[in-house]
Amino acid sequence: MAPSVYHSSSGGFDFLGLRQGRSGGIEIVYDDGVTRRLVFRVVTSRYDTDDIGDALRSAVNQTRVLPALYSELKKRAIAIEAVAG
Prior knowledge:
Shape: globular
Low-confidence stretches: none
Distance between the termini: 23 Å
Structural class: alpha+beta
Order of helices and strands: EEEEHHE
Number of helices: 2
Helix content: 25-40%
Strand content: 25-35%
Oligomer: single chain
Number of strands: 5
Number of domains: 1
């Protein structure tokens, strides 16, 4: 899987990325461009990377990116757990 990167289209500093972790699982990276960087592991056993990408694309363009990310993933029944932050 090639990493995917999503930046705010409104010119904000927020960044969401999708990558393969060291253990082979899928990880979501959030960075606010200033002080905060969080990494989440996708724990849902069955997922579609296109669905995750759609959730990231939608969330990064919201005013409050993290709450939007949680909401978008929940809509798609994709569970995550914090890895680093």
